[in-house]
Q: What sequence folds into this?
């Protein structure tokens, strides 16, 4: 069965510091991987996705993630945090065996301190 | 450019009342979903419709029913609301079957008293 683990339910960084949000997955077949962001009182929006092309994926707002098959990881990074990055971040996995359902991690709440 | 539209945005129900949450998408997606989001529990799938004409239970279907009215619309019904159904509900649609992604509505904040 597929699963997604996000390490750290809360992460706090200083403005200008590196953001690293961790995601590990399990999948018996090559997966599609996604990061979504949820700002307060809003729906989720796609940050970036990996669909078996380049292993380093660039997304919106300066975020990127690297697919590492050997580590079954898809960690999200941003070189320099901005106050506006404070939000909830969700990692998700999909493959063709899921009948078009995403499998979600529990989310990581990112706080950015001035 | 509407994407996924959910109504209502807020609702307060008394225990035992019924209501239907409406969802419509204008992206011609085959698949649609209903999730609930509770603190510390992430997104939990209630029901989904992989394609028009089909619906399937997700992780937490008890107390809910759905209708895939047509390709655009997917409604969620609470027949007899309970306080445990107090949550934020999200509708989503996707083109995952063809290598796309999921798009979400803005959510419905439901309180059952």
A:
């Amino acid at each position: 069965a597929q699963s997604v683990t996000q390490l750290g339910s809360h992460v706090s960084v200083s403005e200008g510091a590196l953001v690293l949000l961790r995601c590990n997955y399990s999948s018996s077949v090559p997966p599609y991987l996604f990061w979504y962001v949820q700002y307060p009182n809003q729906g989720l929006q796609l940050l970036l996705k990996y669909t078996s092309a380049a292993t380093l994926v660039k997304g919106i707002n300066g975020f990127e993630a690297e697919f590492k098959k050997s580590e079954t990881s898809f960690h999200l990074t941003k070189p320099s945090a901005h106050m506006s990055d404070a939000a909830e971040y969700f990692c998700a996995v999909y493959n063709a065996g899921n009948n078009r359902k995403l499998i979600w991690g529990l989310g990581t709440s990112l706080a950015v301190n001035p | 450019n509407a994407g996924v539209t959910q109504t209502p945005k807020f609702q307060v129900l008394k225990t035992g009342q019924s209501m239907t949450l409406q969802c419509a998408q204008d992206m011609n997606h085959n698949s649609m979903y209903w999730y609930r989001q509770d603190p510390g529990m992430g997104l939990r799938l209630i029901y989904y419709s992989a394609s028009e004409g089909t619906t399937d239970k997700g992780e937490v279907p008890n107390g809910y029913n759905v209708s895939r009215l047509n390709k655009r619309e997917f409604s969620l019904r609470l027949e007899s609301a309970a306080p445990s159904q107090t949550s934020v509900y999200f509708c989503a649609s996707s083109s995952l079957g063809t290598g796309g992604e999921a798009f979400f509505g803005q959510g419905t904040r439901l309180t059952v008293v």
Q: What stands out?
A: The longest strand of chain B covers residues 87-94. The radius of gyration of chain B is 13 Å. Chain B has a mean pLDDT of 94.
